[in-house]
Records
---
Amino acid sequence: MTLKLGCVADDYTGASDLANTLTRAGLRTVQTIGVPSDDLALPEVDAVVVSLKSRSIEAAKAVAWSRDADAWLRGRGAEHVLFKICSTFDSTDAGNIGPVMDALRADAGDAIVLVTPAFPETGRTVYQGNLFVGSVPLNESPLKDHPLNPMHDANLVRVLARQSQTRIGLVNLATVARGAEAVRTRLAQLVSEGIGAAIVDAVFDADLTTIGAAALDHRVSVGASGIGLGLARALVGSGRVVSAHADAAAMARVGGPAACLAGSCSQATLSQVANAEKIMPVLHLDPERVVEGPDEARRALGWATDRLADGPVLIASSATPDEVQTLQARHGREVAGYAIEQAMADIAEGLVLGGVKRLVVAGGETSGAVVDRLKIPGFLVGAEIAAGVPVLRTVGTQAGDMLLALKSGNFGGPQFFADALRLMR
Ligand code: ADP
């Protein structure tokens, strides 16, 4: 199998978003958790997104991990590698976008790298090199107060120049609007001036198509899911990828018992749990007892084991804001959150050992804890249950394929659990 596109993502949720975007655009896509082992058995896919947690770590480490991921992808035939960053360009003057870009560019021998975090459909646009979040420049958006990477400058040409060894140029919107040839001509001019990377403006969805076509001439690009979409369109448009039901392979039936876990306390999840009560047995964990020790998770597992043969069950720690506050006041936010996440991971592990093959998890951190505990190497992306929440099929697990749905708290409609189980056969 030869990959048509490789991606290195600097965080897990960004990687999932990109993998889902690529699948929707017609690429059969696997997301891996960390750099895969050399012997990972991959299904037939067009793209692999390697998820790292490298956004806010020391730059040298981010560079080393990204180069490992890049080497793995190139080893599987990827000619183009996208370094996936946040669409708000989260970084500091020390990196990590610039240092990783410089290293991947040097390894690939590219003269110039196209860089754009633009994704117009989600309100991220770039004009004259300035990043807008909705209607305001980046430095006036909530990102100005980000705890790890506060963004005080909207001009990405300047921001990237502070992080990179190379000089940074601009391909402006007027050039992009004239099409891929005009972008190529501008890039050649920048290269002749000794410039090694260019921020590319994009304000409209169609700009991504132009940028994707131009980016595919190169070996490396840097950006968010928007440029990923552009690259996917270029691969499909040029016939290098035949786009037919990219999500189909993930949806093949696995059968077996199904269970749901809810650790999110968001408004959406609370009403989804209430609706699930009408169609399946629901156990509400006692959060106080969860913090006290492992007995509550054991009790939940026993409760589920007694019922799984009769159909899906749901175990929820979800509570109202008042209840969450009371627990946090007594034990501290971190202690309470961690204890409940680990209890959910314990329960997931027990359920899978007991034969569960289909697992729906509500809550971003909760999902992370579950995936880590189950040691899942990666996922093939399937059809969407709700916007941004695809069915995932595990790859490379010893116990055989499982289907998962991993949902951030606020995602999904009121009948989310039923919707998920309907698609996860
Ligand atoms: P979301 O996607 O809605 O943010 P997360 O799973 O990311 O959901 O975060 C929810 C956090 O709340 C987790 O750390 C979880 O362990 C914690 N939590 C879950 N139930 C309770 C509860 N009853 N009281 C306090 N914290 C809880």
---
Amino acid sequence: MIKRIQQAHHFILAAFCTIAVFSANTQAEPSTKVNGVDIEQLLNSMSLKEKIGQLHLLDTGGATSAETIDGEIKEAIRQGAMGSFINVNSTEVANALQRIAVEEGPHKIPLIMARDVIHGYKTIFPIPLGQAATWNPSLIEKGSRISAIEASADGIRWTFAPMIDVSRDPRWGRIAESYGEDAYLNGIFAQAAVNGFQGKTLDDPTSLAACAKHFVGYSAVEGGRDYNTTYIPEPLMHNYYLPPFKDAIDSKVATVMAAFTDVNGIPATANHYLMQDVLRKELQFDGVLVSDWGAVDELVMHGYAKDSEHAAQLAMKAGIDIEMVSEDYVSFAEGLLYEGRISMQDIDTKVRRVLTLKAKLGLFKRPYADAAGKQDFVNAEYRQAAKLTAMESLVLLKNHDAILPLKTSQKIALIGPMADAAFDQMGTWALDGEKKYSVTVLDAFNDAFQDNPKALRYASAIPYSRSYEEEGFKAAIKAAKKSDVIVMIAGEEASLSGEAHSRADITLPGAQEKLIKALKGTGKPLVVVLMAGRQIALKNVIADIDSLIMAWHPGTMAGPAIADVVFGKFNPSGRLPVTWPKVSGQVPIYYNIKNTGRPAHSRPFTFMENFPLEAHQHTLGHATNYIDAGFEPQFPFGFGLSYSNVEYGQTKTNKAKFKRDETFEISNTVKNTGDKTVTETVQLYIRDITGTVTRPIQELKRFKRIELQPGEEKRVSFTLTKQDLKFFNRDVDLVFEAGTFHAWVAPHAMTKEHTVFEVL
Ligand code: BGC
């Protein structure tokens, strides 16, 4: 509900301030026209109330039709006290709100309709973590483009995506919404998503303003608990959390969202240093900065603002342009201005940015949405794109005895709670996805077995992923016994990841581990396909699983994508964008660790099962590891198998010593020794051996996806310059330091063979 601009004295002040506005603006900046709109002229003609209104973003209160729009909301628009809305998802509501703004509002300034269009609108693509597993930015761009076309048909012109919080912690539910643990990959995918959402020009009616979020370091929450505290030292902030934002800004992302979180003692929403010195000056962002949901007022809860008025002041001063759903700006900005706690310039700068965005989006010329686009929702082309992205996101992690691919001539038992989960296969943040469009694995397998339906037996065994009910085990085991092979579709329901859905224990929920053991007990080969919003700790069951595919939450086309991979119509090519832990306690776990003084891999290592009785501590080695889980992950970053076999030669550089201004060429030969055409993701990692701040043991610098025919060999080479070897030092200067480097052109991050080169 709209809080009135309550304090009586504010009404009296309004008149004063309006006069002040006009006099302050007699020195207006030179007129700048954006897409035909004279922003300065418009700004100068607006009352203070209207200006503050432009910074006001509210939820529509669940309006589903023009008639159900709240009367107070309508009145606020009429008075010019509203700038944008979140959670509009119908053309009717969008156009009804817009009509009031552009026909009855004081200056007929259009509204922007926003929505979280994260990995699809009606056609749901894999969750972003799955999209990242494709290592194929063109698919991410295409998916974002389709999402924008669909969403804009419902009047949406602003999405709160992409989320580019580099994520090292799968306990954190929002890892599902991220592009994984690597800053370079996040940057590549951020650019792809921004290009897709924003299209060729923002002015195109099918373009959405994208939003790079959450600035910054939200994923570093302690213990993976959502919204928790973060402490991020400057070199880590600059080398790891900020680069994807730089890439998004370089791709002209229209908006950025501030994180909810406390960063080094100051909540991001009020963090002047991060928002001004880093975001505006260092990263040169000149678009709209929006708060997260209610985050301005949460400054009080954080213990940083004394009250809501103070919260408005702090956020305004830090540089938040638009306040999302809390209403401290609209309630207190006038008073703060009168008291001199904020300046007219603070307000004007924000309003100028919002008006510029509206002009760039072409909303002044074309405020209304065209519902005609709805007829294309989930059309054949979009479904095909969603299927291809889902197929490429599938990561084959284990394939014992080459059980996969299966043949439809085999008898198959399809088991598991995610096999027919039309809703859950869409994953988190599929707000507008409708399960009626989903094709499940059961649907797709039924299709594949059309000519031989008796060969397919289906039993869910467990009704939903968290369930401990075991009544269904019996039917599942019976089906398994009558089959040649078991395909279990396991995992997590959509609601087990996403915002505020962190887990302390990331093993398979419910009775699923028990089911795996029971199925294994039948002696039949067991294929497990996981659908989940994060890596799942599999230590207890990995030995029981013969073949394993990670499918993430694949979206609308989960079934056909999984079927094509399982039955070998598509040779899997996905690669992990995260390191996969064996047990929850290994988290956070990531490939680009520091070496430490006692790296685990170079010291004697004894698991606790092998400790002699009454052993003295020093006999067991002193290295950085867990005595019960070791130091290695279940699967390394960048890992993924195929139905073929690819062999790598020796990584080579074109010289052993380079001058710093030379180009460094690093290459390897890659050969398909299998009998199927394969798409191989060749990865270049670098280690800088010594630095004035210690450097990670590996960093991904480049990758190339290449196709190899059976027997084909290719030389894959990468070129780097000293630019690629730079890092932020302790003084937060971006520096190149000469020295020795290691390089790997390799299939994943845990490849041992490397080459050494020097840069002088
Ligand atoms: C999330 C944002 C999201 C916003 C609007 C918040 O709870 O943190 O990522 O864009 O809600 O729905």
